[in-house]
Every structure is written in structure tokens, then in C-alpha cells.
User: Fold these one by one.
Assistant:
Number 1:
Amino acid sequence: KVPVYGVPGTNRERTFLAVKPDGVQRGLVGDIIARFEKRGYKLVGLKMVWPTMEMAQTHYKDLSKKPFFPSLCQFFSSGPIICMCWEGKDIIKQGRQMLGETQPLASKPGSIRGDYSIDLGRNICHGSDSPEAAAHELEMWFPEGVNDWGKTVDSWVYES
Ligand code: UDP
Ligand code: MG
């Protein structure tokens, strides 16, 4: 059995990706899931959660000293989010690339933020930025675990 945080550096690497309240409100959930599915990644965990203020503060605890922390947590708990656990080779780095840069202005068209966002505080999506962050975030958002299922097309996605 693979632990919830996956096996970094292998095809079983896992990351936590979320569609933030703005992405849900704007109807971008299907598009975002489709991008990762089409690339070949495997969805192993998926649910909608309306974060409490405490959950938002825990999720963003590394930013608690920043001036924007209160407004960020207010926003993150303002409506439901889509919590996802995606699995596959290099998914932590690739997930961040597919999201785009934190700042929408720096995000290339073709990335989620580069295609759909304008403002820093409304940048649609979240993704773990390291294996350590992925482990913490997956344990926080998926305490019940995820699904270790075999995807039959994997031999057409991976050489080995
Ligand atoms: N953020 C903000 N103001 C800032 C920096 C960040 O509102 O000056 C928000 C932004 O929405 C970002 C989130 O806080 O996505 C978390 O910041 P982080 O630096 O972790 O960026 P991310 O990992 O989401 O790219
Ligand atoms: Mg971050």
C-alpha cells in the first residue's frame, strides 16, 4: 500500500492540488481536472470541502507572518474548494508548472493561472511546492486516505 503522500521520485509521486473558491465559483473545476487527466496523470483523491478559518490558517501556516495572511485565509474559507490528490512521475514540479506562477502577470498563457487569472489574490488554484509540502498537505486534506488504483493505460504513458 502506498502512503497517502506517495513515493516522491517515482511514478507513484503524489501532490495536493486544489481549486480555490474563485475557481469553483467561476466554473473551472472540470477544465482543471481535464488538464491533468489528459496529460496522463492519475487522480487518486477528489472531494469538495468548505474550509473553516482554522483549516485555512493551518493550510497556509508558513505564510502566517505575511501581511496578506488574514485576507488570504478569509478568501480561502469563503466557499468550497476542490481537493485533489494527483499521482504520477514528477507531478509535484509538473503540477506547479501547469498552475503557472504565483503572480498571474508572470504566468504564461497555457498555464491555468496564465489562462484564467488576473489578480494575485484570485489565482484560481493551489499546488504543493515540494515533497515535504505535499506530504503535509495530503495528510491534512486526506486523513481518510486516497485510492491506490491501477490505471490500465499507464504503459502508453510511461516507458517503464
Ligand atoms: N498571495 C497574496 N498576496 C501575496 C502573495 C500571495 O494574496 O503577496 C496569495 C496568492 O493567492 C497565493 C497564495 O497567497 O497563491 C499563497 O502564496 P504562495 O507564495 O504560497 O503562492 P503559491 O504557492 O500559491 O503559488
Ligand atoms: Mg505556496
Number 2:
Amino acid sequence: MRNPIRPLPDLLISQIAAGEVVERPASVLKELLENALDAGSTALRIDLEEGGVALIRVTDDGGGIPKDELPLALTRHATSKIANLLDLERVATLGFRGEALASVAAVSRLTLTSRERSAPHAWKLTDAAGEAEPAALLAGTVVEMRDLYYNTPARRKFLKAAATEAAHCLEAVKRVALSHADVAFTVTRDGREILRLARGEPKQRIADLLGAAFLTESVEVDADAGALRVTGLALRPTAVDGTKEVQYCFVNGRYVRDKLLQHALREAYRDILHGSRQPSWCVFLDIDPAAVDVNVHPAKTEVRFRDSRAVHQFVFHALRQALATPIAQAAVQAAA
Ligand code: ADP
Ligand code: MG
């Protein structure tokens, strides 16, 4: 016996959509961090409780949200980042789908407090259908997410131990922080500070997060073809300590897991890697936003290049060349 077709209630639609973006606390955190960065923040504070299940609070010093737009921030498919198809095709912000906050709000208790620089005080909103209340905040935005999945117990069962979820949260911070060296980060876990990153140069940030050894054991990658640029560090084939794979790829500042890029980088290491060493890299690809499609999956960790062959070749040669620099070569010979 079939039931009649009927439209789903709004909350349920958001809860279904949340399944795609809100996999675990770390995915909430990723969305909140991206929003803070899109707002032009220079310093972020992240507070976590119970691995981010009980609380994720992101405090930023970005541009803020005007009072009358607060409900829209929690509304599905509402965004300040794109307005039409052309914008979508050349989107340069980390977000653009206008659904993250609505999704998070559907599966947790979310509070949004924000103050535009010109506003006399901040406003606070807890429900898209509710009224904003005056609040105290110097400038910027505080997004507070509590009790993840409190209303969707089936999903809550999939959460791992707090320590595991906290580790995933920290990894989410790391991914965002690696590509935003000019932004300061402070992370606390259950009231204790666990990470503090000062604003600085990309190389310093890499050293802070991947270890000073990664910096000294790596060669610099830097190739510029105008429309395409790749920079970063790649482990020398003869690195003393290189048995653990460290692989971070960014496209226009966005952490991605891209098979094509991974393949190109891996190929560059082929036949020159010593012993049990693993190819490791932290590379940043900058490309005309119109030449890459980031709208492949709601989590946006996948991309599609318009000219994937050209990107593959460019990245491969850039790394191959970096690995063949005199220093890397000398090291290869010394080790042989
Ligand atoms: P998206 O980032 O795809 O636009 P979100 O649901 O993540 O969608 O956010 C909705 C809107 O809320 C954003 O377009 C932005 O205008 C606003 N917003 C969210 N977080 C912040 C923040 N930290 N600072 C300023 N504006 C924000
Ligand atoms: Mg967003």
C-alpha cells in the first residue's frame, strides 16, 4: 500500500540535508571555520567540549552579520556569497551553498551572536523563526553549537569517544590553519588551551603544524604558469625521517582530497623515493576559480578541473623539478 506523495516538513528537510554536511563534530567545525574566514577574520578562537559533541564555539573578528539578516543566516539556501550562476562558476569564497548553518541548526542547539563593526551593539539569535535579542560583543561573530544530534538519536549513536571526535576537530583546524597562515588560531578543549598559532608566514605555519623537521627535510615547490600556480613543501626523497605519510593538498585555499592531484604528486616521487619513506607534501594550488568546479559534493572536499590534464602535468612537473633541485639531488647522491 503506497502513501500519498506529500512535501516534507522544513525541519526534516534540513535534517536530511544535515546528513551530507554534518557527519560529525569536526564537520560542523569545518563549516564554522570556513564561515569565519569568508567573513575576513584575522583571529579565531575555537572552544570544544566533550570532543565537540557538547559544545563547539567559534569566535571570530570578521565583518559580522546585520541584525535583519540573522534569521536568513539560519535559513536553508540563503547566502551572501553568490547571487547567480555566474557567481557560482567563479566562486572564490569557501562557502556558497547557504545550507551549513541551517543544517547544523537542525541537528543541534545553535546560537548566533554577531555585531557589524558599525552597529551599536551585537544581536543574538537562537531560532530562525525567533526574534533577535540585544547582546554584548565587541565585533565579529560567535557561533555556538551545543548538544549535537540531541534530536536525532539514531545519528548520535555513530559518534565516537570524545577523544576521537576531538582529534578529528583538531585535524579540521589544522587543515584550515595550514592554508591561512595570516590568521591566528586558539583552540581550547574542555577549558584547557591545546593549540595556539600566531599569525605568520606559510612556511612557519607548516612548521608549527607539521613539525620543524618537515620544514628542514623538505624542498620548496614553487611554479608559476600565470593561470596556475603551485607552492608549498615536499619531503626530500632521502629525508631522514619520512616513514609517515603527510599529505595536504589545497586548491585556492580549500583543503581537498583530489585523486588527480594525489596521482600527479605521487608520480613525481616515482623511482626516487628511498627505502620505506613515504611521499609527503603540503602544497597549495592556485587556479582561476572559473577553471575549477568546487560544487561537486556538499562537503566541498572534492573538485573537478576544467582542464584536468593540464593541471596534472603542471603539478607533476612542478614537483619533479623541485625534487631535482641541487639540494635534493645532493642528498640523493649522498644517500646512494
Ligand atoms: P554559506 O557559507 O554557504 O553562505 P552558511 O549557512 O554557512 O552558508 O552561512 C549563511 C550565511 O551566514 C553566510 O552566507 C554569511 O553571510 C553568514 N555568516 C555565517 N557565518 C558567519 C560569520 N562567522 N561571520 C559573518 N557572516 C557569517
Ligand atoms: Mg558556510
Number 3:
Amino acid sequence: MAKIGITCYPTVGGSGVIATELGKLLAEQGHKIHFITSQVPFRLNRVYPNIFYHEVEVSNYPVFQHPPYDLSLANKMAEVIDREELDILHVHYAMPHAVLAILAKQMCNRDVKIVTTLHGTDITVLGIDSTLKRMIRFGIEQSDRVTAVSHSLVEQTREQLDTSKDIDVIYNFVDEREYYRIQTPTLKEEYGIKEHEKVIIHISNFRKVKRVDDVIRVFAEIVEKIPSKLVLVGDGPEYSNCYHLVKKLELEDHVLFLGKQENVSELLAISDLKLLLSEKESFGLVLLEAMSCGVPCIGTNIGGIPEVIQHGVTGYIGELGDVTGISRLAVELLSDEVKVKQFSKDAESLVHEKFASRAIVEQYEQLYDQVMGHE
Ligand code: GMT
């Protein structure tokens, strides 16, 4: 069994979710897991006997113009590597975690192996920022092993960082014990949604890249043909713009703004269709969460989304920004009960086959074994 350190962004966000869920499942397999983060990861919501949490403390010495969080993290990583005799330090999100892990490795007294997982915006946005690019590439190239959450992200990393480093694709997963089709017989009514109305859901952090305005415009065309409600879950910089757009399109009675929600599987249980119309998306973990709950999805032909949705089987892939084309696909699907049932069944099966949590965790375990020289 390995002793594994995990660093991630502990707040809401797909990379933090995956890092935390991976830590939990690895701990269930008997590994010792040490989270090294600025806060307790938000999904670490109960006591696990072989999971430990090491908080990064940042010095506030008045001479510093900016608190040196990054350096304090590297210092903490080195301290935990030595004290807990870590075999592996697995960092999620390259910027700045990969380069800090390399620094920590140089500061400690063990031949700890560094594994870096790329999640998306660390490459697709920050990787093209000239103030960060060289540092991100260095962190990736110096890591012992690098994984990415989709083939598309591997290609983008190669192109944007101009690196030939080997990158393994290990897809994301969900804990199927949490994401399944639960029975919520009264929830629809409690939200004031009529039994015959279809529910279309979008979940995101409402950043510009998520194109939530496209979701609203697509819904505006759907609701003209099919009695339905749009449920918007999450919060972020575009939230108030979305609010205004809903008002402008006179959709106030049809759109529910729910803000951040914890028990998303209950909301997915009342949903008929999920929309993710982003312009950048290395994977789209929310699609997997929906599919695991039997909700068909429509996504854009962007990044890793076509690796997650099987077009015509578990949902549809539309062109970025093609509001009319996407709403046509949605209306066609929602008008065909038999098709919705089949897509829903196939979505669940796909999660259990291609993205099964046990198989994905095994891929990480195999990679750890290889990097530790056990294979
Ligand atoms: O964009 C987000 O929603 C947050 C971001 C993150 O870093 O947590 O998500 C990225 O990582 C997720 C987990 O691997 C992926 O499912 C998301 O597609 C990816 N986001 C982007 O590529 C924009």
C-alpha cells in the first residue's frame, strides 16, 4: 500500500472534486492519503481513518507585498513528504502545483515521485498566458508522470506548451453510490414545476467559458414548443447577466435560479435533459454526474465533451453557438418518450462501463505502481 500526498484546489470545481473523490476511493483500497491544501477539501465531509489533512499556513509578514502562498505550499509539501514518508505526491491542476511539487522534491530527503494531473484551464487558458507558460511546461516536463482527463486535453497540451512529454489519459469518474437515479417524488412539485413539464438543467460555475447565455437562448426556443422549466444551478461572474437575459426574454416564470447546491443528484433526479454548451471544456464532469443519474445530455463539439457524450446514444453533440440547431435536437429528443428512456438507460450504462470509478482508480493505482518501480 502506498503513502500518497494529494494537492488540489480544495474549493468547488471539477479538479478539486476529482482529487478528493480519488483520495477517498484510494483510502478505501487501504492507501494512506495526505491532503496538502489551503482548506479541508469540500467533499471531505466525514472522518476517514486513513485520510489526513495538512493545512498550508501562509506568513503575513508586513514586508511581503503579497502573502507567499505558493512557497508556503512547497514548504509544507516537503515537510509532509519527509515526515509521513510519502511515496507519491499527486498534484491536480498544473498551475502552480506541478512546479511547487518539483521544488518540494528538491527540498526533501526522499525520492518521492511526482504525478501531475492536467484538468483543463491550467492548459487551455493559463498555458497560453506568456507570464506562466514556461513555468507550467517546466512543472509538467519535470513530473515523473503526467495524466490528462481527455485525449483532447493531451493534444491541446502538446500544441500550446510545445512539449513531447508522455501524457496518459485517465478519464474522470463519479462515485456511483452518490450519483444514481434516486426517487424524489415530491421535489418537482415543491419547486412549483408541473408534472407534465420537462426539466432542463444546467450546472456550472457561471464563468464566461460556460456560455450560460446560450443555454438560456436554447431554452427560450425549447419552451415555445414544449412545456418546460430551466433549472440553473451554481454561481459565478455571469450570474447577474444571465438574470438580465432571462428578464429580457420574458422567461422569469420558466427559469429557476437555484445558486450553489450540494445535493445535485436530487436535482438531476427530476431532470429530463442536461445542457453544457461551453466554449472550453476539457472533460465536463457535470455531464458524467448527469449521465450517472440517467439524464441524457446535449453538449458542444468542444474539447473533451465528445469523449463523454456518445452522439445519438446518450445525448447529442451540437456546434458551439448554434442555438437553433441545439434547440431542435433538444425538442426532437424531449418529444420522444421512448428515445428519452433509451438515452437515459444508455447514459447510465456508459458511466458504468467507460467511466466506472473502480476501473479508473485502478488505472491510477497501476500508474503509481509503475512510477514506484513495482511493475
Ligand atoms: O471549468 C471548471 O468548471 C473548473 C475546472 C477545474 O479546474 O476544476 O474544471 C476543469 O476540470 C474538470 C475536472 O477534470 C473538467 O471536468 C472540466 O471540463 C475542466 N474545465 C475546463 O476545461 C474549462
Number 4:
Amino acid sequence: MGKKNSGDQSDRIQRGKTARLTDDHEKKNQIRRVKDVEMTLPVVYGTISFWLGKKADEYHSHKWTVYIRGATNEDIGVAIKRVVFQLHPSFNNPTRVVESAPFELTETGWGEFEISITIFFHSDVAEKPQELYHHLKLYPEDEAGPQSIKKPVVVESYDEIVFTEPSEAFYLRARNHPAVVITGTPTGLSLPAPSGATNENFSEKKRGDTKDHLLSQWFLRHSEADELAQLTAARQQVQNHIMKLRRQLNLLETEAIRLKPNSGQ
Ligand code: SLL
């Protein structure tokens, strides 16, 4: 049965930095990678669990949700194709596959256990699946008296999925996406002219974000995420400005060619 932990805090933040995703087998497939660039996907994963109070029975004392979300609640479906949550074998069909963002799963149960979260990336990301682990926590550590049905127990971990030398395809597709943080300047890559097919479209089709999530009031704050969000916003402003200048330059160049007297005449 579920155990009651003792300790100081029920809401806990855990930190980690995910190691470089190695990709030996993909190197053989001649994936073109962007040198001197790192793409980072800041994520938060964890569980929020509510005690069911009067509705509780022996096998269903809590209702909980496990999830992995963008650290700033942006849609991480830009990089992640599918997430598999592996539950305790006491659950029916303990392997739960979530095919699109938001990547989450809600269940009822009675006990705490380790959930494995396997992340599969889109094929153009060209990275192997990555596994994270989260310990489902149902019981608050610091409260002696009866639990409240209103205040859940929340445990979240902040992590960064780092794509060092990302694939060119992924870089070009996701470099302006708000869920992604870019560091470095690409070398040896001729960027296509702005087509309008980047930034603007993301905002229209990002329904996998968790900004208006039903549970968002319980999401914890992670200072790293806030800092990265500021950096991303600044970078995007600069990007937009560059795009605008590029368009103007293009127009001017076209106009210059048109006005240039033909050498033969
Ligand atoms: C414990 N080692 O003893 C853990 C195992 C398993 C929890 C916890 C199943 C719910 C259901 C469920 O909650 N299992 O049958 O629908 O605390």
C-alpha cells in the first residue's frame, strides 16, 4: 500500500542536466549536422496528485497526472513525437503511449512508484529515444493531519534536452520555435531566404502547449526556465528584426537590378 513519507516539503523541484544525446548509429546515416550550434529544449516533468477524500476507496485513493511539458509551457511537440509512460505492473495496460503534445496521462491508484518516461523524437531530429524517471508521490511529506482534497502534492524536475550539433533539418524547422533555445551561430550552413514559413506559423498551430492547462495553477516555478524564456524572447526579437531587414534588402536588391542600365544598351 501507499507509504507516507516524512520530510520537509511536499512540493519539490529536482534539477538535472541531461547528457548529450549520442547518436553513433545516426552518424553512419549521413545526417547533416549544424556545427557550432546547440539547441536546447527546456522541459519539466513530474506528477500532480489529488487525494480523493470521500470518493477514495482502497485501490483508488488518489487521482494523479504525470506529464512532461515545456519549461515555459510552450509546445514541445516541435521536437518530441511520442512519449511512453511505463507504469507499475499493477495497472491495466501499464505501457501508455501518448502520440502528441501535451504529453500527459491521468490515472487513479493507491501507491507510489517509479514511472519511466521515454521520449521519442521526430525523425528529422535524428536522435535516439531518451528515458527519464520520475517517482510518483501521493502523500505530502510535511502534513501530519488529514490530507486536503483541494491541494495536490506536486513534484517536478527541471531538465534540458540538449541537441549538440543538431541535424540541419531539425535546426531549420525549429530554430524559431519558442520551445527551443539556440546557442551559437551556425557555420557552413547557407540559410534559406525567409519564406514566412517559420515563426508566424508556429503560433497558429501550437495547441500542444500547456499555457492554459487545467492544472497549470499547480505547476511549479523554475527560475532556469524564466531566464531561458527571457533569452528566447530577446533572441526572437532580434530574429524578427533580421528577417525584416533581409526582406528590405531583398527588395532593394531587386530594385537595384531593375534600375541598372544594361551594359549592351
Ligand atoms: C507500493 N511499491 O507498494 C509500490 C507499488 C503500485 C500502485 C505501488 C494500481 C492502481 C490500480 C496502483 O495504484 N498501483 O490497480 O488501478 O506502494
